[in-house]
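Tip: read the tokens left to right.
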């Protein structure tokens, strides 16, 4: 017969809110050396092989897709205009990626057709895309999914959508405008219990947080978001607890071929553990990139007992 203490402990466990693990990654670029190496090895999932067990074990896995998928044109072997070959989606599927941000400075690298194809291809492969849409309204709606009875909503925004190649503006890509962010979060609250905002912003290769990032990220938390996931600088920047939420200013690269400097070869996976709708724990897991493959670094997880500061 169980003791009274054991019965009370079991009852407390049954009454506890469900636990959900959210795993966040930074910039993913599947062209140039990354794509070339995967084709050479006849393995389109090669960049994620080492990451797959960790990422697929999360309840929700998220990253920023820096190179959109497109079925037109030759593979991108060099340069700053990216195109991921459609078969490279095998890596995202192997890693169990649930949601990607498509709002970034490379969102228009394949023009309007590229935006549309990328959204279709992701949807056909069961991956949600936040930050772009078939229409402006769809883009600003964001996306939602449910885990253990908790509704998670994702919104994504880019500081720059042109990559220096366009003078006009495509309203199917969400720009970093705080009034619009506030409206989007207000609307999302009707559909989600926890809101995650993706922020593609800051200065490339700067480890220091730019005021643009701080202002936008804190505005997101103030408006009701629980998590802000930043990327674009291609290097890791600090993270902090703020107003009941958490801000990762830049998670750095996750899959990228910037091997010329140590800081761009290293990134972070950020794990946010929710108890119901509240953050229970925060951990970071370092990764390193080389020769078209990303591997977990052999170092212990950092936890929120020692968060870095911007």
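Filled-in amino acids:
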């Amino acid at each position: 017969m169980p003791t009274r203490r054991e019965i009370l402990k079991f009852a407390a466990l049954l009454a506890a809110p469900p636990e959900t693990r959210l795993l966040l990654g930074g910039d993913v670029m599947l062209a140039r050396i990354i794509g070339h190496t995967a084709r050479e090895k006849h393995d389109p999932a090669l960049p994620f092989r080492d990451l797959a067990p960790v990422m697929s074990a999360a309840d929700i896995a998220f990253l920023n897709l820096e190179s959109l998928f497109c079925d037109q044109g030759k593979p991108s072997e060099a340069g700053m205009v990216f195109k991921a070959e459609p078969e490279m989606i095998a890596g995202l599927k192997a890693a169990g990626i649930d949601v990607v941000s498509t709002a970034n400075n490379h969102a228009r690298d394949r023009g309007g057709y590229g935006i549309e194809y990328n959204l279709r291809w992701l949807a056909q492969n069961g991956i949600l895309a936040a930050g772009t849409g078939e229409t402006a309204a769809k883009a600003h709606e964001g996306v939602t999914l449910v885990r253990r009875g908790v509704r998670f909503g994702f919104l994504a925004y880019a500081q720059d959508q042109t990559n220096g190649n366009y003078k006009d503006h495509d309203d199917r890509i969400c720009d970093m405008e705080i009034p619009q962010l506030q409206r989007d979060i207000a609307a999302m609250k009707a559909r989600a219990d926890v809101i995650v905002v993706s922020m593609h912003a800051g200065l490339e290769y700067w480890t220091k947080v730019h005021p643009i990032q701080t202002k936008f990220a804190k505005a997101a938390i103030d408006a009701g978001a629980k998590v802000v996931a930043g990327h674009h600088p291609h290097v890791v920047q600090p993270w902090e607890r703020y107003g009941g939420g958490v801000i990762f200013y830049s998670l750095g690269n996750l899959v990228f071929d910037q091997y010329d400097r140590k800081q761009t070869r290293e990134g972070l996976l950020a794990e946010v553990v929710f108890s119901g709708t509240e953050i229970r724990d925060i951990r970071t897991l370092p990764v390193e990139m080389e020769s078209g493959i990303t591997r977990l670094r052999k170092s212990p997880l950092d936890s929120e007992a020692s968060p870095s500061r911007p």
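The longest strand covers residues 278-290. The radius of gyration is 19 Å.
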